[in-house]
Amino acid sequence: MQDLKNYIREIADFPKPGILFYDISTLLADPMGLRMTVDRFDWLFAGRDIDKVIGIESRGFMFAPIVAYTLHAGFVPVRKPGKLPAATVSQEYDLEYGRDKIEMHADAIQPGERVLIIDDLIATGGTAVATADLVRGAGGEIAGFGFIVELMFLEGRKRLGEANIEALIQY
Ligand code: AMP
């Protein structure tokens, strides 16, 4: 069995010069890589009474629903603006240059529900913090965060505070 890191493809200068992109598609395309990824999240979060798993567009969508299924939880998409058809709540957050916005259906999380937030990668943590704000705004409780890749030098973990944060691979 290989280390999960060996399945991640690193692409220099994508989507722009100076960025080293960590591509999880090679991990998910491999039957053992996909199984190990889902099994590890299942093992880390089973027994934590998760009601809903959020996947963040777009790479969170690629595996968060499978994690939700194994945890016997529901799946909720958090999307880029203008994609969700019903009434939404939204949250702005800072990017390296400028600001961005994410949206969630206003009725997707019920007060008191325990929510696990999943994405492919945590860099500065801005996307995850904005998602957590949406959940708290809806009255939900953050049960944890799960990432395949964590870029530790960007210290995104610090911005998430005390929460239960799990990353399968760290750089
Ligand atoms: P951040 O909000 O800074 O934590 O950025 C995390 C979001 O940006 C995630 O949704 C990632 O998919 C994406 N992202 C940021 N940096 C990278 C990278 N080096 N490789 C792949 N995805 C990245």
Main attributes?
171 residues, alpha/beta, five-stranded parallel sheet, two-stranded antiparallel sheet, 33% strand, globular, binds adenosine monophosphate
Low-confidence stretches: none
What strand line-up does the widest sheet have?
4-3-7-8-9
**Helix-and-strand structural type:** alpha/beta
- Number of continuous helical runs: 5
Question: Per the principal axes of the C-alpha atoms, what is the gross shape?
Answer: globular
Number of domains: 1
Report the span from N to C terminus.
Answer: 20 Å
Rg (C-alpha, Å): 15 Å
Count of beta strands: 9
The biggest beta sheet reads:
5 strands, parallel
Output the CATH class name.
Answer: Alpha Beta
The helix/strand series, from N terminus to C terminus, equals EEHHEHEEEEHEHE
Q: Which ions, cofactors or small ligands are bound in this entry?
A: adenosine monophosphate
Helix content range: 25-40%
Tell me which CATH architecture applies here. Answer: 3-Layer(aba) Sandwich
